[in-house]
């Protein structure tokens, strides 16, 4: 049987997968894994997308869309072309994170995966961090990292950065709903943040460190909530692979019209 005939025997599948993404995997690699595993089980994923990417360093809520569900992504993201002026920063979907900010060094990517570019012996006090958190609340102008998936003239910024091209990344308006320090040991501070869609936590960490007179980078990051979807609802990587190993797709894939807070429903094909 040739590849064309084999593909014709696959059953198209649509739905959502809500995952607690493990550290070390890109969002794209997670999607590719699902497509391959579902193909092995006799299903074809004609289209695949995700609502908000997560860097390899990051863990937490990642919502993937399969097949027909990809058509609903703009509605979950409240796409500006569809919703127009309602997309003021404070009206965008909210995302919640915890992150560790390590002081004393700056990196190319603003996180632990980048190359160190500068160092500082300065360390902030807890009171200075608390005051800085207060000043970052509300509407802010933020410059995204050069190492990001944003596109310029059809090319991703991180591709340009890797080629050594100098790119002036324009600022964008974001909204910080909540920002608080959870712990601090003198070298690393853990924060909780609730931000508007489009906010880069790596940029926020870099800006926070600069605001207290030093340098810093994101050492760890976890997305606790993306819009209405929370980490408590998400499946772990181990749960997803176990369901797929047993061929129990209903445990992994939620129907296209599933609502946040519901358990995974039947597969919508």
Provide a compact summary of the structure.
The protein is 24% helix and 32% strand. It contains eight helices and 16 strands. The radius of gyration is 20 Å and the shape is elongated.
Structure in words:
With 269 residues, this protein is α+β, with helices and mostly antiparallel strands. Helices cover 24% and strands 32% of the residues. It contains eight helices and 16 strands. It has helices at residues 3-8, 27-40, 73-77, 80-83, 126-135, 157-162, 201-211, 237-245; strands spanning 11-12, 15-21, 43-44, 48-51, 59-66, 94-103, 105-107, 116-119, 138-142, 151-152, 155-156, 172-184, 188-196, 216-226, 229-230, 235-236. Strands 2, 4, 5, 6, 9, 12, 13, 14, 15 and 16 form a ten-stranded mixed sheet that branches. A two-stranded parallel sheet has the order 1-3. β12 (172-184) and β13 form a beta hairpin. The radius of gyration is 20 Å and the shape is elongated.
Features:
single chain; 269 residues; alpha+beta; 10-stranded mixed β-sheet; two-stranded parallel sheet; 24% helix; 32% strand; disordered C terminus
| Tally of helical runs | 8
Helix content: 10-25%
Poorly predicted ranges: 260-269
Supply Rg. Answer: 20 Å
Order of helices and strands: HEEHEEEHHEEEHEEEHEEHEEEH
Largest sheet: 10 strands, mixed
Structural class: alpha+beta
Shape: elongated
Distance between the termini: 25 Å
Average pLDDT taken over every residue: 86
Number of strands: 16
Strand composition percent: 25-35%
């Amino acid at each position: 049987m040739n590849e064309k005939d084999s593909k014709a025997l696959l059953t198209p599948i649509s739905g959502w997968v809500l995952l607690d993404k493990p550290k070390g995997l890109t969002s794209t690699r997670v999607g590719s894994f699902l497509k391959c595993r579902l193909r092995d089980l006799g299903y074809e994923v004609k289209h695949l997308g995700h609502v908000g990417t997560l860097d390899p360093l990051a863990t937490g809520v990642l919502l993937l869309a399969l097949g027909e569900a990809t058509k609903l992504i703009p509605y979950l993201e409240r796409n500006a072309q569809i919703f127009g002026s309602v997309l003021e920063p404070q009206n965008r979907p909210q995302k919640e994170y915890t992150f560790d900010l390590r002081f004393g060094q700056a990196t190319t990517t603003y996180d632990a995966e980048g190359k160190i570019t500068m160092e500082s012996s300065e360390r902030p006090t807890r009171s200075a961090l608390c005051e800085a958190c207060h000043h970052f609340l509300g509407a802010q102008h933020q410059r995204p990292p050069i190492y990001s998936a944003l596109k310029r003239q059809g090319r991703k910024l991180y591709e340009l950065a890797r080629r050594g091209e100098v790119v002036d990344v324009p600022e964008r308006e974001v909204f910080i709903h909540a920002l608080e320090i959870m712990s601090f040991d003198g070298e690393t501070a853990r924060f909780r943040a609730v931000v508007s869609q489009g906010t880069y936590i790596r940029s926020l960490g870099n800006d926070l460190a600069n605001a207290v007179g030093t340098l810093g980078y994101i050492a760890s990051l976890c997305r606790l909530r993306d819009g209405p979807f929370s980490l408590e609802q998400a499946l772990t990587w181990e749960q997803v692979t176990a369901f797929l190993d047993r061929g129990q797709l209903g445990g992994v894939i939620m129907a296209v019209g599933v609502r946040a807070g519901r358990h995974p429903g039947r597969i919508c094909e």
